[in-house]
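Database export, one record per block. Field names are fixed; values are copied verbatim from the stored entry.
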Amino acid sequence: MVQNLNQLVHSVTYTLQQNDSEAFFRNIKDLQKYDLTHIFTRLSSSEQEIFLEFISISLLADVLSELDGENQLKIINILDTRKAALAVTEMNNDDLVSLLSQLDEEKSRELMSYLDEELSADIKNLLDFPPETAGRIMNNKMVWINQTYTVREAVDKLKHFAELAEYLNYLHVIDNDKKLVGVVSYRDLLLGDIHQKIEDIMNTRIVTVDALMDQEEVARTIQRYDFVTIPVVDEESKLLGIVTVDDILDVVYQEAEEDIEKFSASGKAIDFNTRPFTAAKRRLSWLILLLFIGIVSGSIIASFEETLEQVVALAFFMPMVAGMTGNTGTQSLAVVIRGLAKEKINAKQVLNLLMRELKVGVYIGLTCGLLIFIIAYLWQGSAVLGVVIGVSLLCTLIIGTLAGTIIPLILNHLNVDPAVASGPLITTINDILSLLIYFGIATAFLSYLM
């Protein structure tokens, strides 16, 4: 399939270079939105401009919906405002809100001026919700039915508004006050008597999310119940819209990217296309901070210079002790962040987690400490040196494991994203702790080492 898509890219590129619109449409006929978008991103700037001239408004809307923010802005800047406005009116409301959120205020207002009054009002309502909440990512264009409808009336309405039925699974049922009171599946509509009332066949046990709920929690709710869509309500249980599984997949991808960026201390997103200067600039802020923290490690080593001079062999094992401590801390950090992303934990779970990681640190420390004791003894012929290095490694691995567990838990308790406890930060902190322990123990046993 990848090979075929690559061949298609070449074919489309050739038709654009030849300015052959008929051949262009033959090539893109029946393509999925992803494939069409993939082709667009592989074109040169001049070819993209011709692509946008040839393509229909509905396909342009599909491409805009699939692209990331940077490429969306690129298209909007290429198109004249009227054509851009025609395209955005065919986008789902949630996708349109995402696009408008990326534009500057003037451009956003200009596009909004082309929308009809009803659509403009719907979009403004969505934009009123805070970013990264259920209200901001929901689609408020959907089919709903009143509980007083008959099955026939519900089916007729569904047929009339079929283009709004993005997922054919069930309809949301409201009362006269627009409060969500139940759902009815399409299977129930097919099997029900055409004169039956919806309130007699609907399911009143429904799972909803509040419009102000964080999008990550919405994703967890959909994952728990294996839903394709989930209704969004306000504090009075009035139906506001639905969040669909394709939007949740975007949320999961976005949140994962953000956590990776924080975990690696690389700042904003950096991909294969990011320019070297931009990539360096985005990484530098964290690295400069870590550079100054790292100076502390150097000062610790300098303060134990006398110990190092008298037992030179200690220098050989120093990077290993520091490196192992950082590694085990990063492992624990990854485990905690992954767990916190899945669920909220209580005090009992925190205690159990700390006890488990303490035991993990002890097991790892004993194993690695015994192994390095044997290596040091066989290499230097000194049991005392082996004990110093082995005990140091045991202590530092326990502390490193606990640090990688406790720091993200504290940040989570303070409502700070635990992913900011990035790998490099944990590693640097553990370097400092491991060196203090290592040289402290070595100094205490210095007379025996001599």
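Remark 1: The radius of gyration is 30 Å.
Remark 2: Residues 347-380 form the longest helix (34 residues).
End of record.
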